[in-house]
Amino acid sequence: MRLLSPLALGTATAPNRVVVPAMVTRLSGEDGFVNDAIIERYVRYARGHVGLIVVEATAVHGNKSGPLLRLSDDGFIKGHAELVRRARAESDSLIVPQIIHFLKVARSGWRQTIDQLSPDDIERIIGEFGAAAARAKAAGYDGVELHSAHAYTLASFLSRMNRRKDAYDGRSLEGRLRLFGRVFAEVRSQVGPDFPVGVRFLADEAIKGGYSLPDARLIALRMAQLGVAYISLSVGGKFEDAQQRPGQPLYPYTGYSGDRCMPDERYPALTHVGYAADIRAYIRSKGFTTPVVAAGKISTPEEAEGILAAGQADMIGMARQLLADPDWVRKVEAGRRPAIIPCIYCNVCKQLDETFHEVTCFLWPKGAHQAPADDPAGAAPAWGEGNGHLRAEIEDGQIRLVWDKPASGTIVAYDIYRAEDDGPPSVVEGVKHTKHLDRAVLGGLAYTYYVRASDNAGRTSPPSNAVRVDMPLPSQDDQREPSHARV
Amino acid sequence: MRLLSPLALGTATAPNRVVVPAMVTRLSGEDGFVNDAIIERYVRYARGHVGLIVVEATAVHGNKSGPLLRLSDDGFIKGHAELVRRARAESDSLIVPQIIHFLKVARSGWRQTIDQLSPDDIERIIGEFGAAAARAKAAGYDGVELHSAHAYTLASFLSRMNRRKDAYDGRSLEGRLRLFGRVFAEVRSQVGPDFPVGVRFLADEAIKGGYSLPDARLIALRMAQLGVAYISLSVGGKFEDAQQRPGQPLYPYTGYSGDRCMPDERYPALTHVGYAADIRAYIRSKGFTTPVVAAGKISTPEEAEGILAAGQADMIGMARQLLADPDWVRKVEAGRRPAIIPCIYCNVCKQLDETFHEVTCFLWPKGAHQAPADDPAGAAPAWGEGNGHLRAEIEDGQIRLVWDKPASGTIVAYDIYRAEDDGPPSVVEGVKHTKHLDRAVLGGLAYTYYVRASDNAGRTSPPSNAVRVDMPLPSQDDQREPSHARV
Fold first, then answer.
1. CA A388 to CA A391: how far, in whole Å?
2. Domain assignment present for B305
3. Do B174 and A396 touch (CB under 8 A)?
4. Does A171 sit within 8 Å of B396, measured CB to CB?
5. What are the tens digits of pLDDT across the range A359-396?
6. Residues A223 and A307 grouped into a single domain
7. Least confidently predicted of A14-18, A282-286, A471-475
8. What average pLDDT does chain B have?
9. Is residue A117 situated within a structural domain?
10. Are B329 and B435 members of one domain?
11. Which residue in A208, A226, A262 has the most chain B C-beta atoms within 10 A of its own C-beta, making it the best mutation to test that interface?
């Protein structure tokens, strides 16, 4: 299986092709030090044998922010060294921090923009990236990732919204690339040739006036020319379309570009794989073998393997899916595919982040700070007589499902699987109670449902009984009758 | 060539696979009557042998608006009949009007939304669509297209932003589809079984909270179930992200979703073909053969034929490309491929529309209200000694081009062709003067340029001399030196 085969990232080697991209946790204190909760979150991914663990955005500078890890001073090295030590004790997962520089944002709505930076400010930022990378190396990390995505400083220079008119001229591609080139050169000079330096950047800004694939191909090529260890792709997550919320600082991911950054059920599976395939093919055509990481609603081992087999990407990034189930890789390795807890893309994690709460998963037990421990030995929830007794009725062109609780297990959530006509089943929703109204069904199609229950130890029941519903087309009478029509 | 083969659209047959989608012209008066300028604009497409001509959005109701064609009263039929008669005299192009209902928009920024519509309002709208379709048939059109895209009434019901909670419930797919179903049934009952009724709708709303491909597949399937003659796909163009401009009514296409609706040079060629391919494959999998029209930066006969050959779409929509050159089809038929004037996607046409000016093309002669007549016999502009003497120099990581005027011809514009490394040349810009600064080039790549001049009769010169530029990578010195670096 390609998915489980190792891959060289510069001078390091990931044990498999799975990446957990940087995800905000809000577990750290405002002091920026690594704490037990942070260690527990990342050790969990190491225990799950994720090939490359990217630790959440870690500041290279001291600007005030909410809970945010720091590498802006040597005093922060110790905590990171402990995090690395603890992760290493679990597995041979690679672990790197994503180092970030960001500008000031005020609750008033004012925010600092890159055109306000003086030449001295820029020289300072370059130095801060270099020093933070050196601290990452001192802490024992396997490498470092330069955060050049979303709404932050490096991405703002790469952006089509870059309004500078100096050597970092936003009107020219080389001007927009200049700061990244200088930062990379400084980081390389600080960490030496044997320390992998990866990058995450945007394949598409997804904002009015922003760049899309044509610029992204060339930005990726420059990164390959410079010798990045890997190119991890994201989309959107910008300030330009963020929604101002009273009394809160402007926060990216709250606008349309935030929808695109973390696509929910409204978007197709593998939403952004096409970007990775295009960019990878482009840099390959120029002779560069730089690994490309695809991300965006990739959930199953079959999807992941298919992307690798088709040469659309070299590694598979899964943020929300690995938050839901950090043991995804171990379960694939052990042939326990059905034990994987599938992400339902409900984006409760995204909403928690947007409202400045600790980031957890809807599918975890209530109040849990981490995913439940994987316990293959323990007994999974079992349905009683009638196998859940799932039943369905059609109501106003929607399908109402009800079922019985399992006979055993402390149930945390129910995953609802649906197959359209005779197609393959997939998870369409996750709920906490024994009922669901499916509003996304179309008359003229047949739907087959079953439910699986997961307990507070992350164990899932077998499928319930299956129920098939043939949705009738709206009749001419429905069409004419203005009030709700019973079918 | 598939592109030039006929295709049945319900009971009518298009002579080829090329469609000019509805494009605002702002040529009609506020009175809503067909005038000479309107006739000239559409007759031009018939002369160019476009397979399916969709006349710009034509109101089914009397709401005040800017210059906008109407079919809201029998008094409007005569003008449309004359337009049809004049088009028929030119060729066997099919011609249909796009009939639209829209809600009120005030300069204050207030706009009417669909949740404010009473059951009676909705019954009236349904009746207005039926009556307008009957008038289109009376005028002699080959069919009618229901405008269910962008920011208008039918699209607002299909939208995920539909806030109604009655029989048109925005929370359920069938609720969102209900008005379209009722409008289609009423139109069909008014025009009978032998009059093609096509539709245009959004494959992706491209707004925060909007729908994307998964809903679009099911919306398209419902349209196929109902028996639409064709499904024409667009993207974006919504009110929700439109930019309020002082003293002007809120106008769609001014926000990010407007960027997506008419993608410019920042977007790749064939930007939206993937949507058409996905939706077409989906409805085919359900047994429906409804023709699907793809649009969005499709420019060349090779691109168009490739899309048809790959089964990604059944017809090729080209709005801006056919505005630039309405004779595109005739030139392909006559084997005069090099005579095609390529659209450069500068979106001057889009800007003219947004600022409420008559919509013309940047590549047309100054002050022209229509594209220049195709004159194969006339002499194309010829380069003098030195063949244009195109030369290039590298300046601050950009490439400056200058060339000499042709020896003959009244030149309207110069198209700049660029090949990257040894790739195929394509048009990257169109300019009015004999110089250009290419800011979108990357160090480490080689670029080969040539220029073609087009005259006031739409004739294009042969390519100028070609010039090759090897862009150096930024040197370590550049990277360190803070001011502009001369290469």
1. 9
2. yes
3. yes
4. no
5. 999 999 999 999 999 988 889 999 999 999 999 999 99
6. yes
7. A471-475
8. 95
9. yes
10. no
11. A208
HSE-up of residue A483 (Cα within 13 Å, Cβ side): 1
Which residue of B122, B211, B479 is in closest CB contact with A266? B211
Give the closest of B209, B482, B485 to A119, CB-based. Answer: B482
**Integer Cα distance of A445 and A424 in angstroms:** 14
Q: Residue B8: which CATH number?
A: 3.20.20.70
The strand ranges marked E within A137-226 are: 144-148, 197-204
State the pLDDT confidence band at B89, using cuts at 50, 70 and 90: very high
pLDDT tens track for B210-260: 999 999 999 999 999 999 999 999 999 999 999 988 888 889 999 999 999
| Alpha carbons B458 and B463: distance in angstroms, whole number | 15
Interface predicted TM-score of the whole assembly (ipTM), two decimals = 0.95
**B285-324: pLDDT as tens digits:** 999 999 999 999 999 999 999 999 999 999 999 999 999 9
> B172 and A397: CB-CB below 8 Å?
yes
Instruction: Name the more confident of B148 and A64.
Output: B148
Same domain, B134 and B182: yes
In a domain, A368, yes or no: no
Q: Are residues A314 and A399 in the same domain?
A: no
Whether A7 and A314 have beta carbons less than 8 Å apart is answered as yes
Confidence of residue A245 (pLDDT cuts 50, 70, 90): confident
Q: For residue A421, list chain B residues with Cβ-Cβ distance below 8 A.
A: 286
In chain B, which residues have their Cβ closer than 8 Å to the Cβ of A398? 172, 174
Q: Give B30 or A226, the one with higher predicted confidence.
A: A226
- The total domain count for chain B is 2
**Residue position matching structure tokens 């017809």:** B315
For chain A, what is the mean pLDDT?
A: 95
**Which residues in chain B have Cβ-Cβ distances shorter than 8 Å to A476?**
185
φ, ψ of residue A273 to 5 degrees: the values are -60, -35
**A165 in the same domain as A256:** yes
B199: three-class secondary structure by DSSP: strand
Q: Do B214 and A444 touch (CB under 8 A)?
A: no
CA B392 – CA B401 distance, rounded (Å): 4
- Whether residues A320 and A429 fall in one domain: no
Assess whether B141 and B213 both reside in one domain: yes
- Give the C-alpha separation, B422 to B466, whole Å: 13
Instruction: Locate the chain B residue with the closest alpha carbon to A189.
Output: B476
Q: Would you call B479 and A182 a contact, using CB atoms and an 8 Å cutoff?
A: yes
Selecting from A213, A480, A482 the residue whose C-beta is nearest the C-beta of B119 gives A482
The domain that holds B427 is classified in CATH as 2.60.40.10
Chain B residue at shortest CA distance from A184: B479
- Please tell me which residue, A246 or A52, carries the higher pLDDT value: A52
As given in the structure block, the two tokens for residue A342 are 């599938």
Provide, for chain A, the percentages of residues in helix, strand and coil under a 3-state DSSP scheme, each rounded to the nearest 5. 30, 20, 50
B207 to chain A: which residues are within 8 Å by CB? 256
Q: Which residue's entry shows tokens 């890997």?
A: A230
Q: Do B397 and B277 lie in a common domain?
A: no
The span from the CA of B401 to the CA of B390, in Å, is 7
Asked if residue A367 is part of any domain, the answer here is: no
Alpha-carbon gap, residue B13 to B196, rounded angstroms = 10
Query: Residue B190: which domain range?
Result: 2-354
Residue ending a domain, choose from B354, B372, B406? B354
* Structure-derived torsion over alpha carbons of residues B352, B356, B359, B363, reported in degrees to the nearest 10: -20
